[in-house]
Specification:
Blueprint (H helix, E strand, L loop, with lengths): L6 H7 L11 E3 L4 E6 L5 E6 L7 H17 L1 H6 L5 E5 L4 E5 L5 E2 H6 L2 H6 L13 H12 L26 H6 L2 H11 L2 H20 L2 E3 L8 E3 L5 E3 L6 E3 L1 H18 L7 H7 L4 H30 L9 H23 L7 H15 L1 H8 L5 H7 L1
Antiparallel strand pairs: 1-2, 2-3, 3-5, 4-5, 6-8, 7-10, 8-9
Length: 387
C-alpha cells in the first residue's frame, strides 16, 4: 500500500500528527481513500480527490462548503449527521474526516442475513434499512434547508441521467462498455417514449432549479448513509453537493426502496449473482413484484411524510404536483441506473432486472398514475381538473 508522502505534512500542519503506517487501511472508491490512526491517537478517514481532473476543484469545494453550511445552523447540525470534516487542502486535494469505526452503511445493513442481523445487538435497536425511513426523510429535508447562498457553483449539471447516449454512444464508450450495457443503451435509443421522457425530465429539472435553487446532496443511495455505533445516521460522500432540484434526492431515495422491492424476490444476499441465475416468467415477475411493492409502499409513505413534515411551510415545492411528478420520474430512472450497474459486472442481465427496468419505465412515462402505487401523494385529480 502506497500513501501519498505529502499526507504527513498535511496532517501535521493541522495539528493531527503523522500517520502510523501499521494502522493504514485502504478503502474502495473513486478517490484514494484511507483509514489511519495518527501519532496523536486520532482515527482519521482521509480522502484525496485527484487534482487535475476537470471537476476536481469543484468536488473538493462542495465537500468543504457542505460542512461549513451544516455547522452554521445549530438546528440543522443536530439533525444532519455526517462524518465531521477536520481539515482540508484544496491544492493537494486532501480531506480529513473524523473516522467512524464500527459504522455500517445502510446498503450493507440491507445485505445482512436477517437471522444474523437479529442476533447482532445494535445500539439502534433495529437492523433493517426500512426502519430508518423517517430518519432518512428528516435528514434529506435538513440538506435541502441549507442556505443556498453558500453552495458553490458548478460548471455542469449532474451527470445522470445522461442524455447524449440516448442519441449515440461515443467510440470510447462503445469500446469500453460491456455487451449487456450496450444492449441496454440500444433498447433506450430505440424507445422514443422513454428517451423523450428522460430529456423532458432533465429540462423540467433545469427549469425547477432556475425558479427555486435548493441545496441537494446530488448522489443519494443507501450506501451514502452510515449507521454509527450509537445508532445515528450520518450522510457521507458530498462530492456532488450542489444547487439543484430536491426531487433528484427524494426520487433517488424512492428508487432505492423500489429497487429493494425487486431484491425481495431473491433475498438480499449476493443479489447480483442470485438474480443472474434466476429464471422467472414475465407473469411471475409482475405478480411477485406487485406483492413486493405492496410490502415496501408503507416505507416510502413514511419516508415521504417525514420529509414533507420536516421541510416545513417554507418549502412550497413539497406540495407541488410537478415536484411529485419529478420525484416519481427520478425513481423510475433509478431502476435503469441500477440495471446499468448490474450490467457492468455480469455477462448477462436477467429477466428480473429487465422487468424491474420496465417498472421504472412506467414511472417515467406515467408519473401521475405511478405515484400512489409507490406510496407518493396522489395528484391525479389535479391533472383531470386541468384537462
Amino acid at each position: 500500500m502506497r500513501i501519498d508522502p505529502r499526507l504527513d505534512d498535511f496532517l501535521e500542519a493541522q495539528g493531527l500528527g503523522r500517520h502510523r503506517p501499521e494502522t493504514a487501511k485502504e478503502l474502495n472508491g473513486r478517490n484514494a481513500n484511507f483509514l489511519v490512526v495518527t501519532t496523536t491517537d486520532t482515527p482519521v478517514f482521509v480522502k484525496r480527490i485527484a487534482t487535475g481532473s476537470r471537476d476536481a476543484a469543484e468536488r473538493h469545494a462542495a465537500c468543504v462548503a457542505f460542512e461549513e453550511l451544516r455547522r452554521e445552523d445549530p438546528a440543522i447540525q443536530r439533525t444532519l449527521g455526517t462524518a465531521p470534516l477536520l481539515a482540508s487542502d484544496a491544492d493537494l486535494g486532501f480531506l480529513a474526516y473524523v473516522a467512524l469505526p464500527g459504522s455500517t452503511s445502510l446498503a450493507e445493513l440491507g445485505r445482512q442475513p436477517k437471522d444474523d442481523a437479529d442476533a447482532d445487538e445494535g445500539d439502534a435497536g433495529t437492523r433493517d434499512p426500512e426502519d430508518f425511513a423517517e430518519d432518512l426523510g428528516r435528514l434529506l429535508a435538513a440538506v435541502h434547508a441549507l442556505d443556498p447562498a453558500g453552495v458553490p457553483p458548478r460548471a455542469e449539471a449532474p451527470r445522470l441521467p445522461p442524455i447524449q447516449p440516448l442519441d449515440h454512444l461515443t467510440w470510447e464508450s462503445y469500446q469500453n462498455l460491456t455487451a449487456p450495457c450496450l444492449r441496454i443503451w440500444n433498447r433506450l435509443q430505440n424507445d422514443p417514449d422513454a428517451a423523450g421522457t428522460l430529456r423532458a425530465l432533465r429540462a423540467d429539472e433545469a427549469y425547477a432549479v432556475e425558479q427555486h435553487p435548493v441545496a441537494i446532496h446530488g448522489d443519494v443511495r443507501l450506501d451514502q448513509f452510515l449507521l454509527d455505533r450509537e445508532g445515528r445516521l450520518r450522510l457521507i460522500d458530498l462530492e456532488e453537493f450542489r444547487l439543484g432540484d430536491p426531487a433528484r434526492d427524494v426520487g433517488s431515495m424512492v428508487g432505492e426502496w423500489l429497487h429493494r422491492a425487486t431484491l425481495d424476490l431473491v433475498g438480499e444476499q449476493d443479489a447480483v449473482a442470485a438474480v443472474a441465475d434466476l429464471e422467472l416468467t414475465h407473469d411471475e415477475v409482475v405478480a411477485n413484484g406487485a406483492a413486493a411493492l405492496d410490502r415496501r409502499r408503507p416505507v416510502i409513505q413514511r419516508f415521504f411524510e417525514a420529509y414533507r413534515t420536516s421541510c416545513g411551510p417554507d418549502a412550497a415545492w413539497v406540495d407541488d404536483p410537478a415536484f411529485v411528478d419529478r420525484v416519481t420520474r427520478f425513481a423510475g430512472w433509478h431502476m435503469f441506473d441500477r440495471l446499468i450497474a448490474v450490467a457492468e459486472h455480469t455477462s448477462r442481465v436477467s429477466a428480473l432486472h429487465w422487468a424491474a427496468a420496465g417498472i421504472g419505465r412506467q414511472a417515467l412515462l406515467a408519473p401521475r398514475a405511478a405515484a400512489p402505487a409507490l406510496g407518493l401523494p396522489d395528484h391525479s385529480d389535479q391533472r383531470k381538473a386541468a384537462a
